[in-house]
Amino acid sequence: MAGNDFGGRMSVRLSSGSTIAFRGTFNVMPARQSVESITNQDGSTDRVATPTSPSAELTFPDSGIDLVAVMEAPRQNIVVTEEFTGKQHHFISAFFSGQPSVNRINGEVSGLSIVAETYRKTGG
Predict the structure, then answer these.
(1) DSSP conformation class of 22
(2) Phi/psi at 37 (nearest 5 deg)?
(3) Long-range pairs for 110-114: beta carbons < 8 A, 24 or more residues apart
(4) Which end of the chain is more exposed for a tag (fewer CB within 10 A), N or C?
(5) Which is it for strands 108-115 and 87-103: parallel, antiparallel or unpaired?
(6) How far apart are CA 28 and CA 120, in angstroms?
């Protein structure tokens, strides 16, 4: 059945042309708002919508990337490519958010997200 393929080799390409290989997970949050429910004292339910920016959580190997430079970089277009599925995730006017944490036991960098003005998925 078409459209049910996931995973495979993935990489991040920054506007500078440099690439970052993933390790572990890549979670995309494409919505422009978050909606929470509120239950009133009479049992009825309301909801509250909060504007958000499209984002993605990622982990990658500590392969000598200058994390200070990554965190201080200007906004840029970031493209994540799924080689297996042919899909590309475009984060327009994006930057890295969070606090990088480097696990010195397994060499994994976590704690970062890509945050963008606009998100678009193409291909596959």
Answers:
(1) -
(2) -95, 150
(3) 110/24, 110/59, 112/57, 112/58, 112/70, 113/55, 113/56, 113/57, 113/58, 114/12, 114/55, 114/56, 114/58, 114/78
(4) N
(5) antiparallel
(6) 11
Report residue 74 as tokens: 């200007």
CB 56 within 8 A of CB 113: yes
> Containing H/E element for 71?
helix 67-72
The answer to whether 102 and 61 are in contact (CB under 8 A) is: no
Q: The tokens 């930057």 sit on which residue?
A: 95
Q: What pLDDT, in 10s, does the model give residues 21-76? A: 888 788 999 999 999 999 999 999 999 999 999 999 999 999 888 999 999 999 99
Local structure of residue 67 (DSSP, 8 states): H
Q: Within its chain, how far is the Cα of 111 from the centroid?
A: 11
What does the longest C-alpha to C-alpha distance in the chain come to?
A: 57
Structure tokens belonging to residue 80 = 């994540």
